Amino acid sequence: MSPAISLLIALGLGLAGWLVARRRAYRFLQESQTGRIAALPNYHGWYAALWIAVPMVLFLLVWEAVSGQFVLAHALASPEARALPDSGLLRDRMISEAYNLASGASTTAYSNEARALAEPFREAMLRYDLIGLAIAVIIAGAGAAWAFLRLRPEAKVRTRVERIVLLGLLLASLVAILTTLGIFVTLVFETFRFFGMISPIDFLFGAQWNPDPMSNAANPDPNRYGAIPLFWGTLFIGAIIAMIVAIPFGLMSAIYLTQYARPRLRRWVKPALEILAGVPTVVYGYFAALTVAPAIRDLALSMGVDNPSSESALAAGLVMGIMIIPFVSSMADDSIAAVPQSMRDGSLAVGATTNETIRRVLVPAALPGIVAGVMLAVSRAIGETMIVVMAASTAANLTGNPLEAMTTVTVQIVALLTGEGSFDHPATLAAFALGFVLFLVTLALNFIALRVVRRFREAYE
Amino acid sequence: MNDTSASTVPPTAPTRTVAFEKRLKKRYAAERRFKMMGLGAVVFSIVVLVFLLVTMTINGLGGFQRAELSVPVDLSQAALSIDEPVTNADEAISSLQRQGLPEVVQYSASEALGDEAADQLASDAWRVVADEIVADPSLVDESRTYWLPASEDLATALTGSGQTNLQPLARELTANGALADRFDPGFLTRSDATDPQMVGIWAALKGSILTMIVTLALAFPIGVLAALYLEEYAPRNRWTDLIEVSINNLAAVPSIIFGLLGLAVFLGLFPNLRSAPVIGGMTLALMTMPVIVISGRNAIKAVPPSIRDGALAIGASPVQVVFQHVLPLALPGILTGTIIGMARALGETAPLLLIGMRAFVATPPEGFTDNATVLPMQIFLWSDEIDRGFVERTSAAIIVLLAFLLLMNGLAIYLRNRFEKSW
């Protein structure tokens, strides 16, 4: 049964409970001598609805996660399952084929065994769906009984409902912590598995990157897992080339727009820059791969470079820099605007030109904010994926020549996880280790940047 | 009287020596240069933006067209029949195929255009005729001219590149008016295919819509409730600090990390839902939620305390104050932030790449658990195709994606202007 239908049943029962409880509350209201009851009728409705729907939905969620195991066990206990091979990939594939056939996800199966097994699967699914639904309805009924026994004219249901609402609010805000924790635990767990196969020293300080997902997983070659070329490629593309484009252009745009431009121009240009920031990265990647990279290769050819690569670090870095310009510009804009007007006026009053004021007074005063903005921009650039996936190469290359092909951490994560490797192979687990490094580095950059901004802001308040 | 003689001071002050004048000139020149550099930076950004949009538009306009051959088909002689009423379009089409419609179309084409041109009809060209018959069964007795898709090779030849032996044929057919680039409305209604002449974006668009529904259904309530808690109830202690720090960090975590989380956790729990909109939507929801929380908190903070005090004063409980007074007033601001967050999620590719939404999807997903792809992913997949025809199709898909994003951002700006209040 689809989860949507179960959910609708739960909501329908909840609604029924809401209506009935509310009507009862109105009757309380009529019967009471004072014309008052302890809570508004709506709250009676909510009290009943929550007691009916919440336990039922919670149970359905749990059931959705565990019933698959029951179905599998039931189907494998059937006589048809004996025809399957005892173990191995073939068996797993037949089981999943049969499952897909039974659940309607596919209409054909390649093997006869899978077709035969589909019938027990279907039967098991139906059976456990019905069991699940029955238990869910019983739970809802129990919730309803509990709630309706407690609904009296003098029951303070509002405070109870509100306590549940507050609990809901608290749970919602805990999702952020759970996500952070989830990211951290997953990355740490998989990274440790990886470090069980390849030593962290080899990974962090090796200069050869060439993992082979088809090699023997039990005995990987540690010399193929040196991530230095990836770190260098990431740094070179994201923190050097992209910043060479983004910092001057972003900073100068911000200065021009805050100090020189007339309000009318500013009103038009700022949203345009924001569009530049809102273009999806896959579009930038396409632009880089289709337009910028060939142009750079042609330019290099015409300048007499032998055999320039069609996937150059320069193309990816340039386009990434363009993507980051509006980001740097708005951060610089904010921090320049935060410098008190009196400092600017003072400088102009002693006869400095606008340009001297900007360079000697405004920029130095806004420097911590600008530096923080640049750090956030770097953190964004090194985490950027699609541009480099489409415009940089997958070949690890430890070089300082921007015209050569280079690869980055994010490109390798995508390459390793979209391949055919199994989840127990160090080549797949390496992607998580790379992700962990990326997570830690971007986290550190963001953290320092936020600290710098906070400290800087206090200076003028 | 001596005082008036003071008015005969020289026109330039004595401090304005020649060196001073020179220095001043230099400073003014530096000022102008600096200003020009600033203007240059702004102009550069705008030029790049315009260049990007213009190249995409020029390339993409071609993607909404395809090379089509005009073929007169006399269906009355083919004695096709179609069951009335047409209950199932798929069945009707396969019945027409069994009755020999492909052969009829092929024969008509070689009669009208010659064998060489008929060979350059796309292999699925008869489906265009079949679709029209299903839409209007009376066509089976009529003779009509259909515009049918040409093969990819002929389409390339029409642009003056590709196989040299086809180029004279393409020129001849164009001169006869039998071959032309025609607007292809089917690009929006068909799904992915291996032939660029036959592809469309409907499956990807539908996948995007389904994914966005899941994202919105999860991220919006959770984001708003979390924002309400943090802004209205949360005591100042270590716990709320921790929540705040993790929300701010999540907003800055690279999107690919969310893909790793989705891969390890969601696909670990539901291995059968690989590349389904539910999983994609859940992953994107985790990414969008912090954006909604941050913008929601700002909107809630902007509601003046007097509103809360007024409601509390007439006996509302804190929960009633928040849900009946603060939330409605903050909602426009929260919606603006939500739309911006959703626009970002709509353009996101990297996390979905990791959770396997890169499959070739030729049938639009029926529900939240079907195999699906999304619009940015379709762009990514097409950009890897080597066929020349896919370049234009990719740009056309990009135009559609950008149009959606502009629409969403426009809506956000409209909402902001319409409901912006200053208390």
TrEMBL record, chain A:
Instruction: Give the record's GO CC terms.
Output: plasma membrane
Q: How does it sit in the membrane?
A: Multi-pass membrane protein
PROSITE patterns recorded? ABC_TM1 (PS50928)
Spans traversing the lipid bilayer: 45-63, 130-149, 164-185, 230-251, 272-293, 313-332, 361-382, 429-453
Role, per record: Part of the binding-protein-dependent transport system for phosphate; probably responsible for the translocation of the substrate across the membrane.
For this chain, the family text in UniProt reads: Belongs to the binding-protein-dependent transport system permease family. CysTW subfamily.
Please give the name of this protein: Phosphate transport system permease protein
Q: Provide the species name.
A: Aurantiacibacter spongiae
What does the organism's lineage look like at the top?
Bacteria, Pseudomonadati, Pseudomonadota, Alphaproteobacteria, Sphingomonadales
> Source gene?
pstC
TrEMBL record, chain B:
Segments spanning the bilayer are 36-58, 209-230, 250-270, 276-300, 321-343, 396-415
Biological processes annotated in GO: phosphate ion transmembrane transport
Q: Where in the cell is it found?
A: Cell inner membrane; Cell membrane
Instruction: Note one Pfam family from the annotation.
Output: DUF3333
SUPFAM superfamilies tied to this protein:
MetI-like
Checking Gene3D superfamilies in the record gives: MetI-like (1.10.3720.10)
Entry keyword annotation includes Repeat: no
**UniProt GO MF annotations:** phosphate transmembrane transporter activity
Determine the domain of life of the protein's source.
Answer: Bacteria
Question: Which protein family is it in?
Answer: Belongs to the binding-protein-dependent transport system permease family. CysTW subfamily.
Which positions fall inside the ABC transmembrane type-1 domain?
A: 205-412
Q: What is this protein called?
A: Phosphate transport system permease protein PstA
Which InterPro entries has this protein been placed in?
DUF3333, MetI-like, MetI-like_sf, Phosphate_PstA
Determine if Transmembrane is one of this entry's keywords: yes
Which is one Gene Ontology cellular component term of this protein? Answer: plasma membrane
Chief location category: membrane
Enumerate the PANTHER family for this protein.
PHOSPHATE TRANSPORT SYSTEM PERMEASE PROTEIN PSTA, PHOSPHATE TRANSPORT SYSTEM PERMEASE PROTEIN PSTA-RELATED
Where are the annotated coiled coils located? none
Membrane topology qualifier: Multi-pass membrane protein
Which keywords appear in this protein's UniProt record, sorted alphabetically?
Cell membrane, Membrane, Transmembrane, Transmembrane helix, Transport
Looking up PROSITE patterns in the UniProt record yields: ABC_TM1
